[in-house]
Design goal:
The structure is a homodimer. Chain A is of the alpha/beta class. Chain A is 41% helix and 19% strand. Chain A starts with a strand and ends in an 8-residue tail after the last helix.
Chain lengths: 373, 373
């Protein structure tokens, strides 16, 4: 029952392995592109798979509002609806309720909120979140938690974490266990070591198929994020996958993998692609920059994506200047490829015990030298 | 020298054949998707080719303003710039100067106009239009003509047509002849039979690789357009391709093919796709219509495009409701496929002397029953 995680190699604290689910295997460390509204923006799902992605993330909050989980279930589930037959992880809705919805009221029972789309009222509880994710058919379901604000006092962080732990237990009780389908707990506790330790212990008491670190990537900065990982990871079981939610930039991912994280999701590569920002081995570039107007070279040498194989920087620049959809399509494709190539590089480096060299070499070249808004 | 046209079959006035150019063969009757700004909006060029398109149309007016013909030439020409290695036809800029630019002044020499993008002034003449299309590397160049307004008096139509004939001669003189590259003349004369006849004769006196019918699809309606074709086509040579510019809807194309037209271009299938309107054997449908929200069937049965093979109407409806790019991408792909399937059907019907049956059968089923704005 549930998902199965196999670690094949370790290098320092880092691990590489395979997470097996109902819809297939996920090579870890894994980056999950975000398919918010049942689509990775600007990408055919076949193309997402070609970038090397083994799994997508779907957003419970967005899908419950539109087109609704019930409709997706009627259409055969999220995989069939969006034509993605590989694994899907869904978040629980907690984060977006906090960041997007209006007029929230949090009680022991759950959260009542108004949709950002039309103002209509919804009630989201651990039980309802499990029901929605079940209707969607997620391979990996996340427990419903409260998204602790940042910064926060230690007292408020503890109250919030304790509530999330009670919701985690209710999530576990409501989750329908099936072969190949897993439920992940989420460690909370903000930046406080003892709270993170208590949260990790409470979750293991309940028992989950994987453990996420939540409440990060909320503006705390990379050093604090790494500090939290440093004091949290030792309290998580070594034989279950660890997922750092909402992270991150390439250097964030490398640092987290070196601290033992196995899974990531982030809108950065897709969002950046829509706003003309491309990732290269030498850092980010803004394709709207006038210096690219006459640049006949590809965005990145030796990149296997179509944007780099078949087009010049001058062409990509032209597409963004002319506000042509193909600009966002190609650059999203490139950025997702860049991220998946990075993950493959990390997996290979771990397998050959060369992670430190790989990370130093990558980071020495990678610099945010050319980022303009 | 120039392009080569071979007619393989005829059925009534209709013909099917092959137009050979520097970048390959075009099966006729042919529909040319429009790639205004060096991209067919929302489509990878590989995908455009997969729909069955043998040739694209590029817009001289748009490309001369941005990124400029000189830049495209520096980048190796339009084919390389936009990664389309099949034939390209470019219009001469005349039509868009009239419909998009500001503060135009027409003289015997040419047109002075201000860019709709930034107000800067440009001078477009037959010689400059030929130079631009040469820089772009078009397989088929169109003569520079004046776009006669509609409706128009017979006196003004004659003056405009005569000016276009003088510009056609200057275009011919400025055109650089090369093997596989052709120059097409454009018949003008509005809705007046004697003017169309004079224009057709004047162009043949100059001599072109193909003959377009211009000044239609400007609001005159299908019946008048067919009338103009009825009295114009007999005055065109039978051994050269005939191109009806800017047309049209599926029923327009069928009627024109039956009157002997070989080539078409139109933004309808791509523009409709971006606005949620899909073509089906039963007419147009608007995917935003609420009745599709729960419709699990494909947009069109037996359509080979990815929108129909892998998705439901409910999913397409969801994408448009959520304003997701993939909606426009998939529906553009479908509409271009629909158009190319229609052209293949017409070619097959001509080859087997069944054009009348094909047209009657198609048109009996095809009805604009569900079009909503």
């Amino acid at each position: 029952m549930s998902t199965k995680f196999t670690i094949n190699h370790t290098d320092g604290l880092a691990r590489s392995g395979v997470l097996s689910t109902a819809h297939g295997e996920i090579r870890t460390p894994a980056f999950m592109p975000v398919g918010t509204a049942a689509t990775v923006k600007g990408m055919m799902p076949e193309s997402v798979a070609k970038t090397g992605a083994d799994i997508l993330l779907g957003n419970t909050y967005h899908l419950m509002l539109r087109p609704t989980a019930e409709l997706i279930a009627d259409m055969g589930g999220l995989h069939k609806f969006m034509n993605w037959n590989k694994p899907i992880l869904t978040d629980s809705g907690g984060f977006q309720v906090m960041s997007l919805s209006k007029l929230r009221k949090i009680t022991e029972q759950g959260v009542v909120f108004k949709s950002h789309l039309d103002g209509s009222e919804y009630n989201l509880t651990p039980e309802r979140s499990m029901e929605i994710q079940h209707l969607l058919g997620s391979d990996i379901t996340m427990v419903f938690d409260e998204c602790t604000p940042f910064p926060v006092s230690v007292e408020d962080a503890e109250k919030s974490m304790q509530l999330s732990m009670r919701w985690a237990e209710r999530s576990k009780n409501a989750f329908v266990r099936r072969e190949g389908y897993g439920l992940f707990g989420i460690v909370q506790g903000s930046v406080f070591p003892n709270l993170r330790e208590q949260s990790a212990a409470a979750l293991q008491q309940i028992g989950f198929d994987g453990y996420a670190v939540g409440g990060l990537a909320v503006g705390e900065g990379q050093q604090i994020m790494f500090d939290v990982l440093d004091f949290t990871m030792p309290h998580l079981p070594t034989d279950k996958p660890r997922y750092l939610m909402g992270v991150g930039k390439p250097d964030d991912i490398i640092g987290a993998v070196m601290r033992g994280v196995d899974m990531f999701d982030c809108v950065i590569p897709t969002r950046a692609g829509r706003f003309a920002r491309g990732y290269t081995a030498d850092g980010e570039v803004n394709l709207r920059n006038a210096k690219f107007a006459t640049d006949p070279t590809p965005l990145m040498e030796n990149c296997p994506c179509p944007a780099c194989k078949s087009y010049s920087r001058a062409y990509l620049h032209h597409l963004f200047r002319a506000e042509e959809m193909l600009g966002a399509m190609l650059l999203t494709w490139h950025n997702l490829t860049f991220y998946q190539q990075l993950m493959q590089g990390l997996r290979d480096a771990i397998a050959t015990q060369k992670l430190t060299d790989f990370a130093e070499s990558f980071l020495a070249r990678y610099k945010k030298s050319d980022t303009t808004a």
